[in-house]
């Protein structure tokens, strides 16, 4: 800062301005460049930037026409004229501009002068989009969790946010999550992208992606701020160029209706929605509604951080790599895990079925002929449902319950590798506060044909009937139709016709069970409460004991610890 430009001047978005704090309001702190939030006091002089703001939960604001008093409309340091605010939000902090900041020649200084310089050509890195219904729906946590999942898979990851209003919080969290490159639109020269031309926003995004590529990144997670109805977001999701880079997107929402509408709108815009996420996960009932209506799985932050969505993205990258005319080699790092292995002269021996090995899957990756990746992923989802079902019986009730009937509690997870007969499958086995839970299905043989029968069923009814048979083979007769319907919703993305038709077109019709009773299905939909008659008091009384599920899922018994 060398000069102050005052008088009759019209500010532009991105111009730096020296201002005085007059009256404190919503913003009582100002975020500094190192992330520290400094307390503000009346009379303080602050250096901020003019910008527009779009935030339905807080303010709508635009750049002033002159240097008259205005407001600090974002704690990241954005000044503008407040047009509207949420009724529950107090007025913004009032400031008076002293003058624009200029260089030694008297020319105003703008954030665009400090942008990252890189090619604006259409980049080639694979992209995963994080979208949502609105601000605070859970997009940033979804992006952060995706970064963790990709890092777990050994990939170099860039985390970008290409729209919004300047603030450091979102960038700090993805950097903490392990992102190799963490950048946002401010690094592209914008204080805010609200009301910016869409071509300028895309050019800035391409500079950031190409810069990340030059630093060795192999995949990019991009968050687009606000909801699908916001002006710039609505234009971006309909950009053919941006859509052509993406391997798919996740969608965060508050509730089931938001998820349904968002998935439908994205499908109409030509996007492949890989899964739903966000604050919807706070409501198990909302998750069930959304999964049933969209045919998509809900991924919690922990699911994404464990990399459960990564194989789906890798398969899409492998398909895009094989179908590209000149083969996009930028996809190879992401896609190689899903590419078919080189042919071998003879099939390797199949490991013993039912073997469970704690820790790593090293040495158990032999996959027998006929066991497709989709089948193994489906089996992992089935195993997860069975473990949840059995742990409910061990504890006397589901997660979050506080009734007197509770006999135990969950206490995190442990990793277990299950040699299922279809190759090594890594499980996240729930821990119990008292005793040790061992899944009942570990010693049960699984035939690849039984799993493939579910995936290749001719219709939804046949698929769920086949799925019920598989569930009962692994978990016993205590499992019912409601269990099959829940698992069917969670594996819909693995069904062959779901990939080509899209999630909405592939939604299964309402199932008509042969000879079934709809009232019975509704009765069983409450997690088969009639089956919660097991007695696991002994397991709760023996901290060193082992809670083992019987094959029928009728209850738990305590085993003495090995001597």
TrEMBL record:
- Coiled coil ranges (UniProt) are none
Pfam families named in the record: Transposase_mut
Region ranges (Disordered)? 528-563
Role this protein plays: Required for the transposition of the insertion element.
Q: What is this protein called?
A: Transposase
Q: Which InterPro entries match?
A: P-loop_NTPase (IPR027417), Transposase_mutator (IPR001207)
Source organism of the structure: Paracoccus niistensis
Q: Which family does it belong to?
A: Belongs to the transposase mutator family.
Provide this UniProt record's keywords sorted from A to Z.
DNA recombination, DNA-binding, Transposition
Indicate yes or no for the key word DNA-binding: yes
Chain segments annotated as transmembrane: none
């Amino acid at each position: 800062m060398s000069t102050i430009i005052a008088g009759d001047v019209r500010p532009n978005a991105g111009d730096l301005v020296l201002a005085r704090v007059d009256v404190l309001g919503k913003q009582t702190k100002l975020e500094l460049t190192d992330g520290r939030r400094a307390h503000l006091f009346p009379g303080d002089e602050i250096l901020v930037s003019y910008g527009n703001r779009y935030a339905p939960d807080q303010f709508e604001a635009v750049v002033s026409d002159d240097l008259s008093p205005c407001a600090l409309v974002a704690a990241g340091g954005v000044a503008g004229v407040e047009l509207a605010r949420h009724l529950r939000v107090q007025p913004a902090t009032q400031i008076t501009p002293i003058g624009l900041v200029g260089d030694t020649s008297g020319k105003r200084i703008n954030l665009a002068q400090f942008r990252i310089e890189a090619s604006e050509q259409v980049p080639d890195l694979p992209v995963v989009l994080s979208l949502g219904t609105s601000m605070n729906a859970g997009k940033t946590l979804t992006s952060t969790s995706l970064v963790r999942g990709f890092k777990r898979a050994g990939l170099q990851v860039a985390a970008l946010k290409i729209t919004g209003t300047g603030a450091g919080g979102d960038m700090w969290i993805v950097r903490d999550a392990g992102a190799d490159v963490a950048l946002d639109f401010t690094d592209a020269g914008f204080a805010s992208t609200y009301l910016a031309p869409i071509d300028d926003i895309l050019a800035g995004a391409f500079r950031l992606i190409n810069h990340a590529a030059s630093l060795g990144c192999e995949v990019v997670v991009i968050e687009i701020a606000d909801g699908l109805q916001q002006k710039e977001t609505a234009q971006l999701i309909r950009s053919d160029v941006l859509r052509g880079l993406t391997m798919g997107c996740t969608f965060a929402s508050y509730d089931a209706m938001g998820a349904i509408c968002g998935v439908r709108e994205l499908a109409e815009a030509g996007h492949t929605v890989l899964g739903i996420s966000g604050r919807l996960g706070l409501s198990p009932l909302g998750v069930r509604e959304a999964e049933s209506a969209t045919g998509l799985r809900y991924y919690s932050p922990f699911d994404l951080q464990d990399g459960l969505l990564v194989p789906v993205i890798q398969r899409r990258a492998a398909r895009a790599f094989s179908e590209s005319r000149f083969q996009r080699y930028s996809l190879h790092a992401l896609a190689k895990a899903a590419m078919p292995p080189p042919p071998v002269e003879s099939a390797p021996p199949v490991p013993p079925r039912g073997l469970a090995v704690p820790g790593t899957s090293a040495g158990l990756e032999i996959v027998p002929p006929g066991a497709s990746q989709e089948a193994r992923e489906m089996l992992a989802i089935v195993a997860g449902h069975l473990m949840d079902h059995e742990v409910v019986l061990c504890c006397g009730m589901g997660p979050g319950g506080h009734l007197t009937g509770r006999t135990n509690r969950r206490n995190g997870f442990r990793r277990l590798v299950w040699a299922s007969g279809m190759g090594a499958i890594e499980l996240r086995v729930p821990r119990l506060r008292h005793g040790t839970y061992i899944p009942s299905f570990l010693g049960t043989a699984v035939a690849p044909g039984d799993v493939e029968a579910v995936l290749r069923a001719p219709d939804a009814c046949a698929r769920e009937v086949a799925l019920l048979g598989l569930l009962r083979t692994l978990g016993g007769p205590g499992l019912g139709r409601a269990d099959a319907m829940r698992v069917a919703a969670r594996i819909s993305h693995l069904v062959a016709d779901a990939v080509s038709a899209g999630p909405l077109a592939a939604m299964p019709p309402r199932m008509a069970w042969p000879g079934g009773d709809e009232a019975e299905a509704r009765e069983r939909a409450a997690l088969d409460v009639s089956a919660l008659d097991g007695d696991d008091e002994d397991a709760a009384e023996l901290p060193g004991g082992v809670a083992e599920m019987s094959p029928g899922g009728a209850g738990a018994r305590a085993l003495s610890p090995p001597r």
